């Protein structure tokens, strides 16, 4: 087999075989196929696309380039969730404890934040003492014991993806649906769960800017997962404004705690219940989504979800007293208000700008290895369709530096105010 023939075949719009895809990915990973040929193939895929079967073979080839977690020693159905990345997205901190409190095994490896979206690991590290590192053996032990583990990667998952993504990033081939789907699904499948719920974000703050593209991506990821024997659900959700009110690490942990206490923002609570309900259904605890939501609401009302979060924090070396006394989280030094300059209704909040504003305050990193400040961030006071009068607070900036003029300007420009209400819905579509 020759790499050039595979490139030509895809360039001319033909379907590649499993063997051809495997040969190419193996060669690219071990260095026998060079980057110039890999960039030619990714560009051909960008223009020609891939069938579901080709995308499945690509996912499997990337998946098998590294370690694949064997979770068979964990009893019962193992569930996992994944978000394609949004601003203010702290869903795992609520969904994991809620489903685990029902006896469902939630075994999740998360990532760090990069760019305008935050990462679950950074949020967890805002809890003093929380250790995200764990061996595979201890990961399995902890999930068997308390039903949940939220950790960084153990071993080396999908190294071919790292190499391929770095190449796509500099060759204009990131925005290809089969390449995104195989990149995400290879890492998800390597983590070993039986049922996966995907939260595919749509809107200005997301990879997918419209419902049509998000539907294509979600459908392909669901089909890849099913082809690999997994129970799959994808939920398309609106990212035309940040999720919930808090953006920034410890601020988001506090919002997750509030939500587990039944006092979370409406949109964030709705999404957590939706994602968790699909996992409860996949774990076969109930027969309908409505029954699942009722069960989950009970776990909020009786504080069992909150208690499970405290157990998780304790098991991973953190100080669980913060979960019951969130006022203990170190506050930022300065709080600056951003106020409305006109009357009307909020019609749009640019999530990308809010994410970038949080990064300017020090809540995120612009390159791998940057340090972050857990205490800083933004708390929105107004969301889409809220009525505002001139002078009302739109949001507050929590910072450790006094001069936040630039960030304030960015935040003000993120808010659009109009004279009328707009159509706005959080959950746009469910694909199974
Ligand atoms: N996230 C990933 O992990 N891969 C992509 O290609 C895009 C988003």
Strand content: 15-25%
Label the CATH architecture of the largest domain: 3-Layer(aba) Sandwich
Number of domains: 3
CATH topology of the largest domain: Pyrimidine Nucleoside Phosphorylase, Chain A, domain 2
Any low-confidence stretches, pLDDT <50, length ≥5? Answer: none
Please state the average pLDDT score.
95
CATH class bucket of the largest domain: Alpha Beta
Radius of gyration: 22 Å
How would a textbook summarize the main sheet?
A: 6 strands, mixed
Bound molecules: uracil
The SS-based structural class is: alpha/beta
Structure description:
It is a single chain. The chain folds into 3 domains: 3-49, Transferase, Pyrimidine Nucleoside Phosphorylase, Chain A, domain 3; 78-176 and 187-324, Pyrimidine Nucleoside Phosphorylase, Chain A, domain 2 (3-Layer(aba) Sandwich), CATH 3.40.1030; 331-418, Aldehyde Oxidoreductase, domain 3 (Alpha-Beta Complex). It has 17 helices and 13 strands. The protein has 432 residues and is an alpha/beta fold. The strands form 3 sheets. A 6-stranded mixed β-sheet has the order 3-2-1-4-5-13, with helices on both faces. It has a 4-stranded antiparallel β-sheet with strand order 6-9-11-7. The protein is 45% helix and 16% strand. The two termini are 37 Å apart. Bound molecules: uracil (URA).
Please sum up the structure shown.
With 432 residues, this protein is an alpha/beta fold. Helices cover 45% and strands 16% of the residues. It has a 6-stranded mixed beta sheet with strand order 3-2-1-4-5-13, sandwiched between helices. Strands 6-9-11-7 form a 4-stranded antiparallel beta sheet. A 3-stranded antiparallel beta sheet has the order 10-8-12.
């Amino acid at each position: 087999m020759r790499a050039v023939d595979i490139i030509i075949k895809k360039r001319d719009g033909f379907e590649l075989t499993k063997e051809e895809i495997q040969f190419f990915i193996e060669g690219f990973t071990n260095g026998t196929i060079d980057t110039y040929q890999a960039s030619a193939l990714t560009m051909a895929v960008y223009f020609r696309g891939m069938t579901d079967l080709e995308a499945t073979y690509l996912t499997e080839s990337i998946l098998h380039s590294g370690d694949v977690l064997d979770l068979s020693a964990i009893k019962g159905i193992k569930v996992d969730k994944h978000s394609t990345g949004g601003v203010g997205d702290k869903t795992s901190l609520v969904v994991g404890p809620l489903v685990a409190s029902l006896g469902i095994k939630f075994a999740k490896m998360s990532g760090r934040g990069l760019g305008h979206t935050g990462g679950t690991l950074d949020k967890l590290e805002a809890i003093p003492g929380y250790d995200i590192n764990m061996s595979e053996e201890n990961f399995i032990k902890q999930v068997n014991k308390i039903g949940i583990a939220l950790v960084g990667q153990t071993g080396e998952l999908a190294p071919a993806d790292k190499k391929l993504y770095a190449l796509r990033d500099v060759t204009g081939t990131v925005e290809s649906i089969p390449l995104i789907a195989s990149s995400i699904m290879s890492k998800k499948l390597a983590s070993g769960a039986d049922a996966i719920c995907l939260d595919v974000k749509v809107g200005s703050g997301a990879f997918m800017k419209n419902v049509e593209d998000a539907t294509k991506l979600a459908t392909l990821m669901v089909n890849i997962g099913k082809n690999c024997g997994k129970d799959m659900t994808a939920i398309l959700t609106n990212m035309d404004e940040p999720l919930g009110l808090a953006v920034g690490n410890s601020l988001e942990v506090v919002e997750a705690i509030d939500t587990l206490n039944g006092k979370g923002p409406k949109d964030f609570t709705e999404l957590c219940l939706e994602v968790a309900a699909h996992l409860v259904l996949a774990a076969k605890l109930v027969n309908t989504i409505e029954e699942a939501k009722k069960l989950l609401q009970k776990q909020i009302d009786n504080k069992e979800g909150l208690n499970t979060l405290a157990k998780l924090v304790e098991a991973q070396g953190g100080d669980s007293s913060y979960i019951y006394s969130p006022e203990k989280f170190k506050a930022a030094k300065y709080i600056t208000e951003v106020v409305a300059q006109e009357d009307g209704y909020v019609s749009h909040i640019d999530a990308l700008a809010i994410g970038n504003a949080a990064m300017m305050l020090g809540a995120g990193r612009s390159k791998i290895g940057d340090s972050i400040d857990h205490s800083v961030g933004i708390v929105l006071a107004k969301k889409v369709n809220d009525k505002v009068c001139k002078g009302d607070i739109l949001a507050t900036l929590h910072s450790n530096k006094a001069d936040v003029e630039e960030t304030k300007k960015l935040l003000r420009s993120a808010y659009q105010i109009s004279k009328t209400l707009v159509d706005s819905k959080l959950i746009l579509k469910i694909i199974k």
